[in-house]
Amino acid sequence: MGPPVTIVTGATPVTAVTTAPAVATPAPPAALAALENGDPAVPHDHAVAMFHHQADSCAALGSPLSAALLRRAAEDLAADGPCAAAIAGHEDAPGPDAIALRLLGAAHALVLSGLAPDLAAHYPSAGGHFDPADPDAPWPAFREAVAAHLPFVREWLTRPPQTNEVGRANLLLTGLAWAQRRLAATPGTPFPVRLRELGSSAGLNLLADRFRCTAPGFSYGPPDSPVVLADAWQGEPPAWLRDAPLQRVADRRGCDPTPIDPRSADGSLALRSYLWADQLPRVQRLNGALALAAETAAPVEATGAAAFLRDVETAEGALTVVWHSVMRQYVPAEEWRRTEDELARLAAASDPSAPFLHLAFEPRRVGAGHRFLLTARLGTDPEVTLAEARPHGLPAWTLEQGDPALLAP
């Protein structure tokens, strides 16, 4: 699949989160001493470049608040301000470590925990107001919050971002409907689904059968769902999705090296904090999914993908599905090789009465860039590219014949 690409949406594994850490990671004495004395600290050129790159990505993905804060934070790094003290020890962290997103998440956690009321006044997620025409208005409160809660912020920076993007369930449901149409001996009677997810985070997308997708002239899913994936499709949705019966997930479970418990206060805070505060539809989708998680068990084992799949078998009379989204790049090469061996074993075991489906929504290199593609492989059939979508899963669109993405390895 080529070398990993840095994804800016916050999808890496995360450890358990505490809202008020008892022991914070201390800043290196030299860095804080330099800050206090007004002397140059360690060079921040790399970190400044990473923050500007992340700011550009946030702007491109529709978060002007995050973009504005990170641009000012980059200036603060160069000036050895509070943000420099916050990231001390992480100055040379590689792009996939997403230090800029960790800092944003720490500040958002302060807001959601009630510890930064002045900053909350600028955060729509907390009932505040942000005006893109005055993008620097939140900066003084952000800088003050980082300085006032430095131990909290530094402890938070040890935790990689993770948002468990609910919008990506749009692609999972699309792939399930496609496979059920391929398998249907009798229209309208789909196989019950045994859903297994790799890199599940909090397991929210294991609840996809309880989400509703909508677009102009189209809807799919339970009408009373608290999770509505609005504007799910750009243009016409796939023909097989329009009249697809609802999916019935009979058994759901996932794995993650460090899963989040969505039913806990700490887990809920972690998930909410890493959403961008000016993207209210994402906030609303997450809140709905957390409400469903409180009602429906979706176990997530604390283990790697290959070890998890070793215990997975196909089952008579059910469609066994392995699904993952925007996680492949974070899996070490040897681990992924073992994972592919397990996927090949399951594919070889697939038959018409006990089928196996591998669904993936991952960035693939196409030409000079990367595109987020939904691919499906039913049993040992060739892999098929079904759709493309924005990184958060919404909207999705079908590909025109001849699109080079259809030939992506």
TrEMBL record:
InterPro entries: UCP012608. It comes from the Bacteria. Pfam families: DUF2332 (PF10094). This is DUF2332 domain-containing protein. It comes from Kitasatospora saccharophila.
